[in-house]
Input
Amino acid sequence: MIEFIDVAYEYRTAGGSVPALRGVSTTLAPGELVTVLGPNGSGKSTLARLANGLLHPSEGRVVVDTIDSTDAARVWDVRSRVGLVFQNPDNQIVATTVEEDVAFGPENLGVERESMHQRVRNALATVGLSGLEQREPHTLSGGQKQRLAIAGALALAPAYLVLDEPTAMLDLQGRADVIDVLGRLRDAGTGIMHITHHLADAAAADRVLVLTGGSVVYDGVPATLLADTRLMQRCGLTLPPVGRLAEELRAAGVDVPPDALTAESVVAAL
Ligand SMILES: Nc1ncnc2c1ncn2[C@@H]1O[C@H](COP(=O)(O)OP(=O)(O)OP(=O)(O)O)[C@@H](O)[C@H]1O
Ligand SMILES: [Mg+2]
Output
């Protein structure tokens, strides 16, 4: 379990300090997929960096499987339990072949050759890149690169994966592929925190966390949020076109579930 206990964070700058988060208490359990939403500057990336000890809280505590994230003796323990994946896959490529790229993390942790091969193979299979081991990463598509970045994080066998807008630079298919991988990882027991600007991604989550101005304004199941237009407005969220269509259908008496946010799920409800 990752626990955020009454966490505040302020960035210190030359001009003073910038408050980024305050009073944040939430959790991420193994096998749970939490989608994090919120407008620009609401503190989402700060939350991601706090989750694996890249940043230390100004107030409160972040605890990863009972280890305090500020425990200097266990920095690597925390980092290896919580994998981080960022927005731009190009910035996350470190080697000249797909295989070496995935092996980079475990190699640095001193994982033995034999189990390393296994780890790399498993990680690539999980993200659907088997067979591309010898490809140069820069020849992959954007979606494939992002799945490669996820494989690199998985090779460290993290219990939790925190992804900061991993689909921001991808087209629809690339997004769908990444979302699919996240679902499978969750089912295999990894705790996933998925930071995204796409409200539709919330439908697949076990829980949704919404931040505005550094505070949690919603932490609960997606259906409750998505069915409450007033609450959505207070959270600064607007329904995507498909969601609005679903709402109009509901108003017309058609039984469309509140978490139907893709064309497929709306069609299925008709
Ligand atoms: N390195 C930094 N130095 C100073 N202030 C920062 C720094 N990084 C972020 N901030 C400020 O902290 C607040 C939260 O930023 P954060 O990056 O966590 O938001 P975000 O929700 O990830 O935004 P976005 O959707 O644009 O990625 C903002 O006010 C931002 O300007
Ligand atoms: Mg961000």
In short: The longest helix spans residues 172-187. The beta strands are 2-13, 16-28, 33-37, 59-64, 67-68, 82-85, 160-164, 191-195, 207-212, 215-220. The mean pLDDT is 90.
